Amino acid sequence: MDDRRTIAYFSMEIGLESGMPNYSGGLGVLAGDTIRSAADLKVPMVAITLLHRKGFFHQSIDSSGWQREEPVEWAVEDFLEEMPQRASVTIEERVVHLRSWKYEVNGIGGFVVPVYFLDADLEENSEWDRALSHFLYGGDQHYRLCQEVILGIGGVRMLRALGYNIRRFHMNEGHAGLLTLALLDEEAKSAGRGSITSDDIEAVREKCIFTTHTPVPAGHDQFPLDLVRSVIGPREDFFDMTDSSTQNLIKRVLRNRENFFDMKDLLRSEGTLNMTYLALNLSRYINGVAKKHSEVSRLMFAGYSIDAITNGVHAATWVTKSLQGLYDRYIPGWREDNFSLRYAISIPRQEVWQAHIQAKKPLMRYVNSRTDAEMDTDTFTLGFARRATTYKRGDLLFQDTERLRRISLEVGSLQVIYAGKAHPQDQGGKALIKRIFEVKKSLKKEIKMVYLENYDMELAKMIISGVDVWLNTPKPPLEASGTSGMKAALNGVPSLSILDGWWIEGHIEGVTGWSIGEKIKEGEKSHDPSQDAASLYEKLEKTIIPTFYHKRDHFIDVMRYSITLNGSFFNTQRMMQQYVLKAYF
Ligand SMILES: *Cc1c(COP(=O)(O)O)cnc(C)c1O
Predict the structure, then answer these.
(1) Partners of 115 in the beta sheet?
(2) How far apart are CA 468 and CA 450, in angstroms?
(3) CA distance 522 to 260
(4) What was the pLDDT predicted at 286?
(5) End-to-end Cα separation, the chain, in angstroms
(6) Residue 516: other Cβ atoms inside 10 A
(7) Could you tell me the distance, in angstroms and rounded to a whole number, from the CA of residue 235 to the centre of ligand 1?
(8) Segments of the chain scoring below 50 in pLDDT
(9) Is 564 in the pocket of ligand 1 (CB under 6 A)?
């Protein structure tokens, strides 16, 4: 085994191919892009995740607009190679046996980053344990905690069984936090001790890196300590450490709350194991995923040093065929060197437009084959596709449907393409889909609109590259980064977005796209949704639609600047270089 690999990247979900439904959304897709760029840059990394055999569900939407979910069984053997090594974890005093399956991500220069999928579905395990690696984010808290034991503790043990000598453990979100417990045990054991000391804690901190991904409280796992005790056993040394330090931190955080926004839920940590605090306490390097998100995280978790590394996307993966051809002709070597996309500014306008139309046509064909919308390539088309959840406010466009109708009739006609899955337990997200569905019906005569089913990486690539403007309407400051707008920018599709997440860094008004409203200031509450909606209509009515129909050259300039200024920067190649510089070595 190649023991020169020193960095292990842990993620509960990883999106590698559409055929492998092992991801739910942005976090998993980012993980896949991160690994692809690590392979391109020959970073000595291995990745660890769980094998979600039942996949993240297949979505359909019934005639009333309500989401239906079905498991997706996928042929694991078609994608992955079973490894002979075994490892195990103890859950509720039972030994749960684990195997792993390997997937190889090939970098552009032939360097491979292996991804290991942990699998508890073995005959030696009980029926219940076998199902532990079946459902991504499925089941209740108990099920989730058991999965996190497998990912964190099982992951470390499997890496050892595979022969790796890992020195850096990167936790992509708190789900992997329990890897710290396995590392603490290793330290104590190698010193011949049975319990953990502060030296062990320092040694483990030296090895760990933690990336936090969201300010939304539901994104931060916490488990009742009684549950944790029953699942991992009476590890009082470990609880003492996490619990007491958690209590101190709560006090500090409470003092620094600034009323920035309401974090009460997250702070109710007494008597719980909070995976975020666990990871924060045991990591040497911590980062948020955009500059703004790091600021917000420093307010949420006062007292920690939280740096920023802004997310990116894997350029060669997310640029569609026609644009790839264009870049190959004008910017040879752009895949190896994403910075060179800055030269897109000198690609002739007509060629950029042609490539865009080549991307728009297949999207229109797809839409028209699935629906009766009869969309066309000449009409200005807005796209909105991402996880359907309330804070993303997918219905902001419909605050004033009368005004939207008027814009489409009087200023220039408009088509809208929606897609996105709601988490099976997110009733608010499902209600949002239903509302969009209903508005779609009521506007049918004036505005062609569709909600495409079963959003996945393949559909994402088609929508993101084939619309004219990418719409993003989160409630600030809850969008930590967002990556779909970066994918759009790489395809020359500018954003019309709330100033939150990455867009605060990528936005130059009228140059790289357009903002909705102003940036919220320190201590200020989110804007009233109707204010944001008014700004959204204003931009469409006064600027974007007229520019699209009547000042095409100017519109294409915005497309070129999207590639030049944003595509060249908001990619995982730049991001991975920053992790190497700041976090890994
Ligand atoms: C990129 C991507 C996302 C993330 O989109 P955001 O706008 O960042 O929320 C989610 N799902 C899929 C399938 C994606 O490709």
Answers:
(1) 47, 103
(2) 15
(3) 8
(4) 97
(5) 22
(6) 27
(7) 38
(8) 244, 246-247, 249-268
(9) no
The encoded tokens of residue 72 equal 């997706």
Tell me which amino acid residue 168 is.
R
Q: Quickly list DSSP for 9-44.
A: EE-S-----TTS----SHHHHHHHHHHHHHHHTT--
**Dist CA 12 CA 117 (whole Å):** 10
Ligand 1 atom closest to the Cα of residue 24 is 11
CA of 490 to the centre of ligand 1 (A): 14
- Distance in Å, CA 487 to ligand 1 centroid: 9
Q: Which of 34, 463, 483 is the best mutation target for the ligand 1 pocket, counting ligand atoms within 8 Å of the beta carbon and taking the most?
A: 483
Q: Where are the alpha helices (DSSP H) in 125-263?
A: 127-130, 141-149, 155-161, 179-190, 198-207, 225-232, 236-255
For residue 313, the ligand 1 atom closest to its alpha carbon is 1
What is the sign of the dihedral through the CA atoms of 186, 187, 191 and 196? negative
pLDDT for position 269 = 58
Q: What pairing do the DSSP bridges indicate for beta strands 414-419 and 380-385?
A: parallel
Sign for the CA dihedral angle at 43, 48, 52, 56 comes to: negative
What's the pLDDT at 4?
86
Domains of the chain in sequence order? 7-311+577-584 (3.40.50.2000), 315-569 (3.40.50.2000)
At residue 271, the pLDDT reads: 76
**487 CA closest ligand 1 atom index:** 1
Name the CA dihedral angle for 219, 62, 54, 460, rounded to a multiple of 10 degrees: -60
Residue nearest atom 15 in ligand 1 by C-alpha distance: 457
CA of 25 to the centre of ligand 1 (A): 5
Residues 181, 238 contacting (CB under 8 angstroms) = yes
Which pLDDT tens digit goes with each residue over 362-389? 999 999 999 999 999 999 999 999 999 9
Contact at 8 Å (CB) between 570 and 312?
yes
Q: Is the CB of 455 under 6 A from ligand 1?
A: yes
Q: How many A from CA of 464 to the centre of ligand 1?
A: 10
Ligand 1 contact, 483 CB (< 6 A): yes
Instruction: Quickly tell me which residue has 């997200």 as its tokens.
Output: 429
Q: Strand 7-10 relative to strand 168-172: parallel, antiparallel, unpaired?
A: parallel
Closest by CA to 473, choosing from 545, 382, 566, is 382
Between CA 336 and CA 422 the distance in angstroms is 36
Would you say 11 and 31 are in contact if contact means Cβ atoms under 8 Å apart?
yes
Amino acid at 79: F
Comparing C-alpha atoms, which of 312, 296, 117, 156 is closest to residue 214? 296
CB 104 within 8 A of CB 49: no
Q: Is the CB of 356 under 6 A from ligand 1?
A: no
Read off φ and ψ for residue 72, nearest 5 degrees: -115, 110
Name the 3-class secondary structure at 486: helix
